[in-house]
Design goal:
single chain, mainly alpha, elongated
Amino acid sequence: MRHPIFLAALAGCAMTLSGCMGNSNDAEVARAMKSVNAVDESNLSDIMLTVGDPDEAVAYFQRTAAENPDRIDIRRGLAKSLVRADKPVQAVKAWEQVLALPGATNDDRVSLADAQIRANDWAGAKKTLNTIPPTHESYDRYRLEAMVADSEKQWKKADSFYETAAGLTTKPSGIYNNWGFSKLTRGDAAGAEKLFKEALTYDPHRFTTKNNLVLARASQGKYELPVIEMTQAERAQLLYTAALAAIKRGDITMGKSLLQDAIDTNPQYFAEADRALKALDSGPGATVKG
């Protein structure tokens, strides 16, 4: 797969080389062609890691790595493509191979820890992060440190890492959302609500954060929807989330009312909400899933 603009640029390079061949010896032409091929390969690698099919990207980097086993950039590409293809166990092995090569960096160690967490190897991730010197400060490093601290219920440490990570990026919506979810799992719904609101100031379109905000509010008995941007379909889904939270808290009447609002609001048939409402109406022994 080649990008049209990219191919046009290569064609221009080829024409330039052709015009120079009469005045260049074979060695110079070979060096020039090698330079063009390097540009070709670099751009293709970038395309594979962004818009290419994940499995095709894995196959490309596996083939290229087999042909160039000492190329650390290709090994990195393979590891990244495996993460993108949702193959974290293989990605861990690929990142370990990167770290075995000269030129490996602390960023590579951070990427290994990320893959280990994706593979549910929390102990391995903690061990990897501990090999990184404290002078290496990056958003991804502290984001992962926060997640590991969360997994061990070291709340103060987690909060410190989340705060540090948020200060190291211009797009902190994701980290505030994760931090809020951490607070919610600890039972601090009010703290979670504040963080979800903060996340939405940076990305008002992120539905996961909207849903988490409604869940945090409903956990406190605040069932009215917050004043945030939402489509009609999103509003219906958020009402459904609030309804399930109300039912879980034992506020059955409120839950039924919210379910009916969700059904009436949704621009299409809302099967899940309809089933939940019918289950509540069928009697006290009914089970509402959600």
